[in-house]
Specification:
Elements lengths: L1 H12 L3 E2 L13 E2 L4 E3 L8 E3 L8 E5 L7 E5 L2 E5 L4 E4 L5 E8 L2 E7 L12 E4 L6 E5 L9 E3 L6 E5 L9 E5 L5 E4 L9 E2 L2 E3 L7 E5 L2 E5 L7 E2 L5 E8 L2 E8 L2 E8 L5 E4 L10 E6 L7 E5 L4 E4 L7 E5 L2 E2 L4
Antiparallel strand pairs: 1-17, 2-16, 3-12, 4-8, 5-6, 6-7, 7-8, 9-10, 10-11, 11-12, 13-14, 14-15, 15-16, 18-19, 19-20, 20-21, 22-23, 23-24, 24-25, 26-27, 27-28, 28-29, 29-30
Length: 328
């Protein structure tokens, strides 16, 4: 069991940033404006959405339900993969290495690295697509930064990033924008006592409300991270997502992996039944369909993906070890 715990901690460390090396809480500063936003041209190859006969994915970097589509999107090292409920699809070109993936009402926001030969600058900074990845709009830090941790409200206007390395516009730390990346402010993090930064979730309608997963539980803010407080017990949390005022999160402790639901208004917490997951295979990403509250999905450290369409009563395995289990 000791070797298993070491493996788990190594995996979790890859999903978290240790606060001592990332944020300077004393540096706030004025709003910082970024470069002009415009569309960026991708590969000139013909773009289309094609059926996937066989998937073998080794790197999953996020998942979500864009409001302008009915499919579950998965961000990978090699572009987008989409599951429409019965079949898998993927993009024929523009297969960028999307990281920090966030589904929003009109499409998705992301960061990451361009597909080889695309002619795009590396890294991508913060980008937006409203047409399934056919075209990208640069929002901020294009060619400068790569954000593994970013999140946004459902409208997409309120965006949060964890900046690990200073760039020409901002220092290291947690930043938020209320105008889709045109300007940024640094969160003061008063009351934040965890020793790590992790996954971020933003309330769908209340852009000032954000929650962060850490090794010491969930820290919550209603003022864009300027003041924060712990709202769960101090156990490791690996993933979280909002569905209205409900916050779903995964915790690992006592050799178990659990999915829980926390009502942020009443503080009532309940456990959501999920398929058995080995302690060395924790949940890495959670996504809720904001058009259908009964629909939710999660991925795991071993690249498994499960989806429920009845509020967690039943789950379907869509990927096992990165391979699709649902045949076309």
């Amino acid at each position: 069991m000791k070797s298993g715990k070491k493996l788990l901690l190594a995996g979790i460390a890859g999903m978290m940033i240790f606060g001592s090396g990332c944020a300077d809480k004393k540096m706030t500063g004025p709003k910082q404006k970024t470069n002009q936003q415009e569309n960026i041209e991708q590969n000139k190859q013909e773009f289309s959405i094609i059926k996937s006969k066989k998937l073998n994915l080794s790197h999953l970097h996020g998942l979500g339900y864009p409001g302008n589509d009915d499919s579950l999107y998965i961000a990978t090292h090699n572009g987008l993969k989409m599951f429409n409920g019965t079949e898998w699809f993927e993009t024929s070109s523009n297969n960028n290495d999307y990281m920090g993936f966030q589904a929003v009402k009109d499409g998705f926001l992301a960061s990451g690295h361009p597909q080889k030969g695309s002619g795009l600058k590396n890294p991508l900074g913060l980008i937006q697509s409203t047409d399934k990845g056919k075209t990208l709009k640069k929002l901020a830090f294009y060619g400068e930064s790569d954000f593994h941790f970013l999140s946004a409200s459902y409208s997409g206007n309120e965006v949060y990033i964890i900046n690990e390395q200073p760039n020409s516009k901002i220092d290291a730390g947690i930043y938020y924008s209320k105008d889709l990346g045109k300007s940024w402010e640094k969160s003061k993090l008063t009351g934040f006592t965890a020793d790590s930064f992790g996954m971020i979730a933003v309330h769908p309608e209340k852009g000032d409300t954000m929650a962060m997963a850490t090794r010491n539980g969930i820290f919550y803010t209603a003022d864009s991270g300027n003041t924060m407080k712990a709202i769960t017990s101090p156990e490791m949390v690996t993933a979280l997502t909002f569905s209205g005022d409900r916050l779903y999160y995964c915790s690992v402790g006592n050799n178990t992996v659990q999915l829980k639901q926390l009502d942020t208004k009443t503080a009532k917490e309940t456990e959501v039944k999920i398929p058995f997951l080995d302690y060395n295979n924790p949940i890495t990403y959670l996504a809720a369909d904001l058009k259908n509250p009964q629909r939710m999905a999660f991925s795991t450290y071993n690249n498994d993906v499960y989806e429920t369409r009845d509020g967690g009563m039943n789950w379907t395995a869509l990927l096992q070890n990165g391979q699709n289990t649902v045949s076309p």
